[in-house]
Amino acid sequence: MTTDLVLDELWGRIAPLLPERPARRHRHPGRLPVPDRTALAGIVYVLRTGVAWRDVPSQSVGCSGVTAWRRLRDWTEAGVWPRLHAALLTELLDMDDCAIDGSHIRALKGGPMSGRRRWTAAAPVPSTM
After folding, report:
1. Which residues of 89-104 are buried (b: 16+ CB within 10 A; e: fewer)?
2. Which of 37, 53, 70, 105 is the most exposed place for a label (fewest CB within 10 A)?
3. Is 25 inside any structural domain?
4. 8 Å CB contact between 24 and 91
């Protein structure tokens, strides 16, 4: 199911942006870390289905929801998501074929006015004396 959630094209864009995993210790290496693609599949599963992290089915996704959440936290701290966003924007926006038009935006600091302005203040109150 990992390949269903994380397509090769998506993985090809994200993989270069991920930080290097630290080397395992030699004496007490602990468990083998879950592959990054599997952890990304867990993150995508939560985003698509909206389930809680604890409800991620580890048999079908390949990792627990807590593992996916920890990897999401690590990648967020490493700045992966802003870099991915910038990479996708530069890929999607070809600035050679774009035009920017700001004629419909109001000039905030003065600017030329068209026609006379209407007085919008309240009328003065008549004197009570």
Report:
1. eeeeeeeeeeeeeeee
2. 105
3. no
4. no
Please indicate, yes or no, if residue 100 is contained in any of the structural domains: no
Which of 62 and 120 is assigned the larger pLDDT? 62
> Which domain range does residue 49 map to?
2-20+33-93
Q: Which spans in the chain are helix H?
A: 2-5, 8-14, 36-49, 58-61, 65-77, 80-92
Read off the tokens for 123. Answer: 């009328």
Q: Provide the number of structural domains found in the chain.
A: 1
Question: Which residues, 6 or more positions from 74, have their beta carbon under 8 angstroms from its beta carbon?
Answer: 19
**52-56, 67-71, 99-103: least confidently modelled range:** 99-103
Give dist(CA 121, CA 55) in Å, integer: 59
